[in-house]
Write a structure and sequence with these properties.
heterodimer, A: 517 residues, Pdz3 Domain, N-terminal domain of MutM-like DNA repair proteins, 6-stranded antiparallel beta barrel, 29 strands, 18% helix, flat, B: alpha+beta, 6-stranded antiparallel β-barrel, 16% helix, disordered N terminus
Chain lengths: 517, 480
């Protein structure tokens, strides 16, 4: 132990000299061996990308603070994240949305001069995990050059991942694209095109949110890195291009259907399908693009925009090889554009044009993410109510599927199967004990069905119903035991101030992100 | 969740005066088990053996724990000092209260033995002695301790049932199971479960005599009926507003009914929201307790002491008016799904290499499917009334890989909804659906749009091939 401490003391002054400007640094960063030969193989290419990089990449520091869904009026401790952003056309810096999710303060920093400017998140899309930042100092980016997206990668191509050393030096690591496929993106339930890169990255500057370039063009942004298999998942060029080209609000359209493969020859014979390939439509979600176009459960999708679909749902892309057809419908297509489906239905081939649309979040029962939005809540006489969402369940940690209250997990998992008018799932999250809640202290995570005789399908419903107590009582009904509880309405009203003071509540409710006293 | 470990026991020798007397009644039970294999339900299961304790009670019978003799295919008993093992048989077994009565064919076994007498509930802090054969040696071990607590506890043998339990601080270790706990020459309990040392120290549990006596009375008619239940939940009524809203005075009487389980004995008699004021003339306090024999006990104790066919009289308050109702008591079956089952062969059907099984606790313990939809249907089987539409959840539990089922993997652990349009409510429905000749067998699963389809020809072709390759000795077992 003693020897270790002595070593650290010895090291500290050295570090201070080596990198006076980076408070977030790993203390051993300076002790790391110099880059291995693997990282600097080709001289010419390296030189080029260095020049490009110096003029086009910036360090991005973001202080993020998420809401505490157990106490929705509070924010959690701030967390500092850093990554590397890329200057793109239009004077904005492109980063992953994850980097600036729930950000309080974003700062751009020039790699070599350490010059800083605060920045504003101009646009963020959690579907594709991308955000655009604009420096608050208008002259900050002068002299820098935006990167373009003119290159499309294929399997086997090389790409260079750019990292910044604490001293501003650019570290380049070359990797090879091993797979291009439609895969899950981390923040929303959507699959978009992903480049998988095999790349021996080292931890530098505490972040793997990094750009990848090729021949001086931006080709992707790193969003995941698995150190064990040395494989990185990149937000792919077409996804970035779709994000940059879309007008501010429009996002990635979705089909709104689930399908399964048609590999089983017995099943193919059963449905009388003689054409090759095709996938079977399992479910069509109401309100989605597919439902609006009249695609039905049991249909077989044989082609999309004339491109044949194989038995697993892949089409042959001239650039990317065999990829899932959803790339055509959610990335190649834009909201409002038309996609034509060739469908096999009851022995006949039909063509169905579909207008691709972005799903309306109003229909979502349990939101997958609520980044940047203060969660709504209502406190009534010590009862804390909120709407079920994935972030609420995620408060139970990484293994929330097993640890969170089961009924809530099932509501989230099978939300698409609920009756269409089910609305939001309003939950009594916890009880802040006050005299009115005597005997109810242990209640938690109960699903509310009615308040004062009125059905509750949203927090707004609940807040409205709470305005009209029945015979002097608030009667609250749950799906689980105890099915019914009562609060003395007059007493709740009279003791509001005491409740607010006792638990330091900023407000008794926040609806649609707005506080009211 | 604390892990309760069950104890099984060992050998013996007389110690001291009292021990010598008890020795005349103590029995060592050796059991050969054949635990059913839920993952290969056609196989008779692996053979293992275990040893437990028991003691002789009136009528030349041996009392022990149910878990000592569960799944036993062969039993022998030994008296102390007599090396000869005698084959024994299970007369009655009560898995819901972990008790069993054994008989010995040869009457000579009982020569020179003394039947132990049952006493009452010992007082808190009074001394008791525990007899058994716990680990740490081969001979009889006697440990002493005091009665620490009298309370309701879950009986881990079934995992679902809670009954009156007495906690003692005498060292009880694996090997004490089925042994008597004595006080003043009488049995005051049967040692049966405890916590492993890394969870709690000096915490052992015994089955008290009211539970034992109930078991004896239940089997008087020649068969064991399960415990009966009201099949409802209730919640405290401390809250002044709730009391006022329900029209109750501030006298700490009454509990509010939460859920009344459909198909249970209270269904149609008691409603959710009713206030239970009294049971069999005893006042129910607002925390759900009643005064019985001078002790404050949960109101369910009244029901615990009753038998199938008897009824409980309840004073209830419904929307402000008082009424008295009679609930004829029975054992609601849907709960059995979530109890561990013993002495039962797993039911199954093999068709086209697909194995279908009804789901119960044993199935879930064996497979640990980790399938969210199945978990939901199983966990909320009773609460959400899933049993009403589906008395059994039949799942595709296993695939004996073959060309005929090469693409069935996506359907593993899915619950079968329909086969060729026929609703599947129990495993026997699967058998009858497959028995009807059809070119295609269309198996529709819950929550999966696409059905699983098998061609009759392919199934027939594969049949003997699959049975032979996987050593499947029987294609189905369905309990009558």
């Amino acid at each position: 132990m003693i020897r270790q401490i002595a070593f650290l003391l010895l090291l500290t002054p050295l570090l201070a000299v080596a990198e006076p400007k980076s408070p977030f640094n790993h203390p051993y960063a300076a002790a790391e061996p110099s880059p291995s030969p693997l990282e600097k193989p080709g001289c010419n290419e390296t030189q080029d990308s260095r020049v490009v990089a110096e003029r086009s990449i910036l360090r991005v520091n973001s202080t993020n603070q998420a809401y505490d869904f157990f106490q929705p009026w509070l924010k959690k401790n701030p967390v500092s994240r850093r990554g590397v952003g890329v200057l793109v056309q239009g004077g904005c810096v492109l980063v992953t949305a994850e980097l600036v999710m729930n950000s309080n303060f974003v700062e751009l920093e020039k790699a070599t001069t350490a010059e800083k400017s605060s920045a504003t998140v101009e646009r963020v899309d959690y579907d594709c995990n991308l955000a655009l930042l604009r420096p608050n100092d208008p002259g900050f980016l002068e002299g820098m050059k935006p990167l373009t997206l003119e290159k499309s990668l294929r399997v086997g191509n090389e790409a260079t991942v750019l990292q910044l050393e604490p001293n501003g030096e650019i570290a380049e690591t070359i990797g090879q694209i091993t797979t291009i496929s439609v895969g899950p993106y981390p923040l929303e339930n959507i699959g978009l095109l992903v480049y998988r890169l095999r790349v021996p990255l080292q931890q530098r500057d505490g972040s793997f949110m990094l750009p990848a370039v090729s021949d001086g063009h931006l080709v992707g942004l790193l969003m995941r890195f698995d150190a064990r298999s040395q494989s990185a998942d990149l937000i792919s060029t077409p996804v970035i291009r779709h994000f940059l080209d879309s007008p501010a609000k429009a996002r990635f359209p979705r089909m709104g259907l689930s399908f399964s493969s048609l590999r089983d020859p017995q099943f193919r014979r059963f449905i009388g399908l003689k054409e090759p390939g095709g996938v079977y439509v399992n479910e069509v979600s109401p309100h989605g693009s597919a439902a609006e176009a009249g695609i039905k459960k049991g249909d077989v999708i044989l082609a999309v925009d004339g491109k044949a679909i194989d038995q697993d749902g892949n089409y042959d892309d001239p650039n990317f090889g065999r990829v899932l057809f959803s790339h055509l419908t959610n990335t190649v297509a834009t909201p409002g554009s038309e996609v034509t489906f060739t469908i096999f239905r009851k022995g006949k081939l039909i063509k169905i044009p579909a207008h691709m649309s972005v799903p309306d979040r109003a229909h979502v029962v349990s939101d997958a993410q609520l980044a940047d939005h203060p969660p709504d809540y209502v406190v009534l006489g010590g009862f804390v109510f909120l709407e079920l969402s994935r972030p609420y369940l995620q408060e139970w940690g990484n293994d929330w599927v097993n640890n969170a209250p089961k009924r809530l997990v099932y509501y989230d998992a099978f939300q698409n199967e609920l009756p269409e008018d089910r609305g939001k799932i309003v939950v009594l999250g916890r009880v802040l004990p006050v005299p009115e809640t005597l005997g109810y202290e242990p209640l938690q995570n109960l699903v509310v069905t009615q308040v004062n005789g009125k059905p509750v399908r949203s927090l707004v419903d609940l807040a409205e119903a709470a305005k009209k107590p029945v015979k002097g009582f608030h009667k609250i009904e749950f799906e689980e035991d105890p099915k019914t509880v009562f609060l003395d309405a007059a007493s709740v009203e009279a003791n509001q101030k005491a409740l607010v003071e006792q638990y330091s509540l900023p407000a008794l409710q926040r609806l649609k992100g707005k506080k009211s006293p | 969740m604390l892990r309760v470990s069950l104890f099984l026991f060992c050998v013996f020798l007389s110690l001291g005066l009292e021990a010598a007397e008890v020795a005349e009644s103590l029995v060592r039970i050796e059991a050969t088990f054949q635990e059913p294999n839920y993952k290969a339900p056609w196989s008779p299961g692996e053979v293992s053996s275990g040893v437990g304790a028991g003691f002789i009670v009136q009528g030349d019978r041996i009392l022990t724990n149910a878990h000592v003799v569960s799944n036993a295919s062969f039993l022998t008993v030994n008296k102390e000092g007599d090396p000869k093992p005698y084959p024994a048989k299970v007369l009655y077994v009560a898995h819901d209260c972990d008790l069993a009565l054994l008989s010995v064919d040869k009457a000579e076994f009982f020569n020179g033995t003394t039947a132990l007498e049952l006493g009452d509930i010992p007082a808190i802090e009074s001394l008791v002695s525990v007899y058994g054969y716990p680990i740490g040696g081969k001979r009889l071990s006697v440990t002493r301790g005091i009665v620490s607590r009298i309370d309701f506890q879950t009986y881990s043998h079934s995992g679902m049932d809670s009954h009156l339990t007495i906690q003692i601080d005498a060292a009880i270790n694996p090997g004490n199971s089925g042994g008597p706990v004595m006080q003043k020459g009488k049995v005051v309990g049967v040692a049966f479960q405890g916590y492993s040392g890394d969870v709690a120290q000096n915490v052992g549990y015994m089955i008290p005599t009211p539970v034992v006596k109930r078991f004896f009375r239940d089997v008087e008619d020649g068969k064991y009926d399960r415990y009966v239940d009201l099949a409802l939940t209730f919640d405290n009524l401390f809250n002044p507003a709730a009391r006022k809203a329900l029209g109750l005075p501030n006298d700490d009487v009454g509990v509010q009914v939460g859920t009344v389980y459909g198909g249970g004995p209270s269904d149609g008699i008691i409603k959710s929201g009713d206030v239970l004021m009294g049971i069999d003339g005893l006042r129910i306090a607002s925390d759900g307790t009643i005064k019985l024999d001078g002790e404050s006990v949960p109101l369910t104790e009244v029901v615990e002491r009753k038998f199938k066919g008897e009824s409980a009289s309840l004073d209830i308050l419904r929307e402000g008016s008082s009424l008295q109702v009679k609930v004829p008591l029975s054992a609601p079956w849907p709960f059995a799904l979530q109890s561990k089952a013993y002495d039962e062969k797993p039911q199954f059907i093999v068709f086209g290499g697909l194995v279908f099984q009804p789901v119960d606790q044993n199935f879930m313990d064996a497979y640990k499917p980790g399938n969210l939809r199945l978990d939901y249907l199983f966990d909320f089987f009773v609460e959400d009334g899933i049993y009403r539409e589906r008395p059994q959840l039949v799942v595709l539990s296993n695939i004996l890989a073959d060309a005929v089922n090469a693409y069935a993997k996506d359907f593993l652990f899915a619950v079968v909804d329909e086969i060729n349009g026929q609703k599947i409510r129990r495993i026997s429905d699967v058998a009858s659906a497959f028995a009807k000749t059809s070119d295609y067998y269309v198996i529709q699963m819950l929550g999966i749009g696409r059905p699983l389809v098998l061609e009759r020809k392919a199934v027939e072709e594969a049949r003997s091939r699959i049975l032979q390759r996987y050593g499947v000795t029987s294609e189905q077992y369905i309990k009558k």
